[in-house]
Design goal:
Elements lengths: L2 H15 L8 E3 L6 E3 H6 L15 H8 L6 E2 L18 H12 L5 E8 L2 E8 L10 H17 L3 E7 L7 H5 L1 H14 L4 E10 L12 E4 L5 E2 L3 H8 L10 H6 L5 E2 L2 H15 L17 H13 L24
Parallel strand pairs: 5-6, 6-7, 7-8, 7-9, 8-10
Antiparallel strand pairs: 1-2, 3-4, 4-5
Helix pairs in contact: 5-7
The structure holds zinc ion.
The site of zinc ion has 8 residues, from loops.
Length: 333
């Protein structure tokens, strides 16, 4: 029993054991190779601070960023028939699904939510590339139909973030059938006169670009996103020619009139707010007028509600309770 063995030695041991940093704290930028600390990367919305490379972002984190105060309500999506073709390659399809569910923590490759963005009520859907390559399955088709139905029901604009490797081969023709199904669903939005905005992220390919990803009123892409039907390698092999630099990348498509804008992810929310307001015929946002994206949900929600409810009310009058809520009234801005 002495000071050295009881106090100094454990202290030294704890110092060294703390050095064993878990691997997932650091991410290497695939573009420039810079090592990035996970929190720094998260705060920067998974955009590399040194080369501006846009890495993948999960639907949940995306929604946390675009909705006011990071608050949103998931919209329920009906479950399709499980493994309709009894498909098996190296693994059984249900096993692949289970593995993807475990690694992403999501049910399927698309998440639908409703909430407010810059105090404009919207419905949003986001595709998850980390879930089996974001492939378009029957569930994804159901998710888009659920999103479109909900948007029409609530008379809200729909914003869709696409990221996909194409249709899910394990569902064969049933996956391909989601192209006409989603096209019909989106037609409901057009008939209801509601805006449909698509944000194309890296990569958006295959059947997805042949259906819902290219049917928006406005198409915005993230920088350097690959957007194509057939990939550059396939085209090169087929035509036997070298393709130009930046072929099928967002900037190339913008130059060739396939997109309306290419926008940095960190400016995406502000731009989407401005565009939805413009399409809804509301007044454009004024600087400092909007609630912050995702900080402390509680304080932000309160602040947003307070300023939305009574902008002319003097602070401290204590009459915010009976003020009308700005929710579910897109026309009133
Ligand atoms: Zn980088």
């Amino acid at each position: 029993m002495n000071w050295i063995s009881n106090y100094v030695r454990p202290k030294i041991n704890s110092l060294f054991s703390r050095r064993e940093v878990p691997e997932n704290l650091w991410t290497k930028c695939p573009e420039c190779g810079t090592m990035l600390f996970h929190r720094e990367l998260k705060d920067n919305l998974y955009v590399c601070p040194s080369c501006e490379h846009h890495m993948a972002i999960s639907p949940r984190e995306r929604f946390h960023e675009i909705f006011d105060g990071g608050i949103f309500t998931p919209v329920s999506v009906p479950d399709p028939i499980a493994d309709p073709l009894q498909f098996r390659d190296q693994k059984r399809y249900p096993d692949r699904l289970k593995a993807a569910q475990k690694s992403t923590g999501e049910t399927e490759a698309m998440l639908v939510a409703e909430g407010e963005m810059g105090r404009t009520p919207i419905v949003a859907a986001a595709q998850d590339f980390s879930f089996m390559g974001g492939s378009m399955s029957m569930y994804v088709g159901n998710a888009i139909i659920a999103a479109a139905t909900r948007a029409v029901e609530l008379k809200r604009p729909l914003i869709l973030f696409s990221a996909a490797g194409g249709a899910r081969m394990q569902e064969g023709i049933l996956a391909l059938m989601q192209m006409p199904r989603t096209t019909v669903a989106l037609q409901m939005l057009k008939e209801a006169g509601l805006p449909y905005i698509v944000v194309l992220t890296h990569p958006t390919t295959g059947g997805v670009t042949a259906s819902y990803a290219m049917l928006g009123d406005i198409h915005i892409a993230e920088p350097n996103a690959l957007i194509c039907f057939a990939g550059p390698r396939v085209i090169e092999q087929t035509i036997g020619e070298k393709l130009p630099d930046g072929f099928q990348r967002a900037e190339y498509l913008l130059d060739h009139g396939m997109l309306d804008r290419v926008t940095d992810r960190r400016k995406m929310r502000d731009e989407l707010i401005a565009i939805t307001r413009m399409l809804l015929g509301a007044t454009p946002p004024v600087a400092g007028d909007l609630p912050a994206p995702a900080a402390e949900p509680d304080s932000d929600e309160k602040a947003a509600e307070k300023s939305a409810a009574k902008p002319e009310a003097k602070p401290g009058t204590g009459d915010k309770k009976d003020a009308p809520k700005a929710k579910s009234d897109p026309a009133k801005k």
